[in-house]
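Long-time lurker. I teach an intro course on protein structure, and each term I like to show students one example going from raw sequence to a predicted 3D structure in token notation. This year I'd like something fresh instead of my usual example. Would anyone be willing to generate the tokens for the chain below so I can use it in lecture? Attribution to the forum is fine with me.
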Amino acid sequence: MNWSFASSWSVILIGILVWCIAANLSWQNAQRRGTRAVAWLEGLRMVIVSLLVFTLFRPEMVQRIERTESPEIVILVDGSGSMATRDVRWTSTVLTRTKWINDQETNGFANPLNEKGEVFFETFSMAPTNRSPEAGTDIAGALERTLKTHEQLRAVMIVSDGEWNLGGSPAAIATRFRDQDIPIFGVGVGSETALPDLVLERVSAPAYGLIGEQIAVPFKVLNRMDREIETSVVVKAGDRVASRKQILIPPLGELHETVLWSPTDIGENVLKLSIPVESGETFTDNNELEHKIAIRAETLKVLVVDSVPRWEFRFLRNALLRDPGVEMHAVLLHPELGPGAGHNYLDQFPGGKDLLAHYDVVFLGDIGFGENELQSKDLELLKGLVEQQASGLVFIPGRRGRQMSLLDSPIAELIPVVLNRERPRGIGLQNEVPLLLSSTGKGHLLTRFDSDEIRNGEIWKNLPGFFWSAAVDKSRPGSEVLGVHASMRNAWGRIPLLVTRSVGNGKVLYLGTDSAWRWRRGVEDKYHYRFWSQVVRWMSHQRHLSEREGIRLSYSPESPNAGETVFLQAAVLNQSGFPLDKGKVIGRVTGPEGRMEDLEFQSVDGGWGVYKTRFTPREGGEFELNVRAPSADREMGTSLEVTQPVRERAGQPAQFNVFRELAAITGGRSGGVDQLHGIVEAITLLPEPKPIEKRMRLWSNPWWGGALLLLLGIYWTGRKLAGML
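-- Reply from a regular --
Happy to contribute to a lecture. Here you go:
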């Protein structure tokens, strides 16, 4: 054991000078007073000054311990999911990263290290599972555990692809290895550049679909080739090819697209999406994915409200009447003739929550707020229907301009556009003008008449236009503009005419022209019926996620990931068909491992029988949801598929930069699989480990500081008692 001082010579000289001055002052004071108490106090003061000056020199007590035990060499092997990537070119084959490591272990690559010390193989990280959703690669954590558990550590070799997605930066822990003279060696397994391949990486679709509905199935394709690939995505329902779409993927890029599928069979369907194997692909087993979707036959209830039987009203009513999946009712409040009558007509607006709550979509035509039209209570009901019951509301104004009166009504904030009050009767045109799709509208489900975006655009260009449109200034914040006026602009750009917006739990659509019926010219019902069919099903989708008689359950997001909060909403009717206003709704969630969680729903103000709660799934798999309203004798159960996010994805390029950084910090070495034996040899050539050096920094030790404070306290108390102040 010896002492080490980290202070500079200038500080030492100043410290000695200070000590000498203090000693001289103490000697003179003791001589002048001449009492024994003063002599003791001055002696104590010199002890304190001496200790302070000694501390100023930053002393460290150094203890050197000779190593007597055998050095330890730890080989950390990555066992995470990304190691399943098959991209190690070895001899004449391509192996997975894990297979290559196992082969090297079998061949005894570490045998030369046994002469250098004791060798330990340790696996770190793991592939994610339902029980361990946070699994990933934590290189820093593995290094820290190694440093703590191996006292005679001489070197560490990491055999991994270098991808870390958990824990802190490995470079931070590497400084501690450097301080203890323990080098880190890295063997990078895999290819730093992706091998030529096409990957159908992800397929997502709604939890359910309806017969007659056109379902959008989003997908993602990766192109790991240095050339543009023109191919197709094929959708199979069972053994039948149900849909096909041509796609063009940029070189070394990715493509997010949507293919449309029209189901023909009720029940659980398994969709298989695939892309043909391209010439030059390294792997052929990642070109296909499956997705389950339930197809149901639902009858959607639609209410159409207008004032006069204009052409738009007549053709819309006919389109909905002839849709086998729609039950339509119409309310025609003629300003002079009174309510309309006939098949599927109602003599008045459904003026109660029990009557209106059954409707999935409501169309508001050229009708307003006032005498012989809609009343304030009717519009309050409409607002609650959209915001709380997740129904859809469609605005189709007309030349009477009566929708302008809605700007002073309870549903004014639901309108997704800002109307021009100075032109209530809209804008008439001499020449026909088409509806122009926006960039958002080109890919939206509502405007899809063909799965191919180019052909779909051509269809819209050739559709008959309009001679009248509503006077619109701009869209409201949070709205999506799908279509605009092809010839008119203002200070905010082109006039928005086809606009959607989410309001509360529901959706709102605004069509600022009364000429959609003209789309029938030359093609009859082909596009007109299809458009309104898509509108009705898109707007009512959330309401029919899961339901039984008298109770309906919706959830968001529809396809949640583990760790993501799921919001549940139950709409309950009592036995009389009225919304359950003051009841108790309880639920239970059962996870895939059998773990249960009780839920208590909270009532939402408004009297619509809506109750909300939330829960957070911690694992992936199928969850069972059960909801009960005992006072209304309502109960239902459903299942929810939760996706487990994968931190470790096979197929990603290896990341060797981390090994280069670790080796540079600690004095080790890194390389790829072809340098494995050279790295092993470098470890065998390491010099004998230096003695362990333990340092106690006295100048920063809290006990030392405490002792100095204690002595100062004794000195000051002594001065008080001696009467020296």
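Some talking points for your students: The mean pLDDT is 87. The chain has five domains: 2-66+694-721, 72-191+652-690, 198-296, 300-542, 546-642.
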